[in-house]
Amino acid sequence: MSLTVHKKRPLKMIASPEEQGLLLEKNEKNSVSPISIEKANDINASSISQLGNIERENRLSAILRLHTRGLNQEQIAQELHIDQSTVSRDLHLVQQESKKHVEKYMREDILLEYLRYLVGSNEITRTLWEMVQSKDATRKEKMNAISLLMQMYDSRLQRLTAGPESFLNVKKSLSEIELRKMAEVNPMLQARLNNKILFGKDFSLFKGLKKE
């Protein structure tokens, strides 16, 4: 007579739907999404960039302040504990930015300021005439208003007369700026420009030259 031995299989514990939901929620909390990691990296990179920009602006400001006091590049580098090459690079950057600001002012801002002067002058003139014609104003107030009107007309005439001449001067200055930009990429033109500065030769030498 033979005996048959049956092996007991381990029982599998099946979690209830509520327990499965809790486990899934726990796993989701513990897991880190690739999108979240990428977003965190972007935030860190942005923060580092902002800090770098602030540090750079502070350094530029300090270099310009010391340069204004008459310190040379070596002295500035020693004062700020940075390389002299950094000072040289930053000063060159400040110079280029200054050129851009001056050019923008001459091309755009100065014309806007001239227009603001004309509009403001008209408003002041209108207000003074209202005071002269007012029945409530005293004789002294009217005389003061008339005196101010005479000054306004005189000033306005001078400004209007000088306006076209000033605009021509601006155009001439802008032409010289364009010429110097061309000279930066053209050594021959740069040499001729330096020759003009040293010996006072006419700018007509440069007429017809085009930027390569």
Structural commentary:
- The chain has 212 residues and is an all-alpha fold.
- The chain folds into two domains: 39-82; 83-206, no CATH class.
- Helix content is 78%, strand content 0%.
- The protein starts with 16 loop residues before the first helix and ends in a 13-residue tail after the last helix.
Distance between the first and last residues' Cα: 110 Å
The profile of the biggest β sheet is: none
Share in β-strands: under 5%
Oligomeric state of shown chains: single chain
Number of domains: 2
How many strands in all? 0
Count of discrete alpha- or pi-helical segments spanning 4 or more residues? 6
Query: Which runs of at least 5 residues are low in confidence (pLDDT < 50)?
Result: 197-212
- N-to-C order of helices and strands: HHHHHH
Structural class: mainly alpha
Mean pLDDT: 71
> Helicity range of the residues?
over 70%
Shape: elongated
Key features?
single chain; 212 residues; mainly alpha; 2 domains
Topology:
Blueprint: H1 17-30, H2 34-68, H3 73-80, H4 84-133, H5 139-184, H6 187-199
Helix pairs in contact: 3-4, 4-5, 5-6
Brief description of this entry?
By secondary structure, the protein is mostly helical.
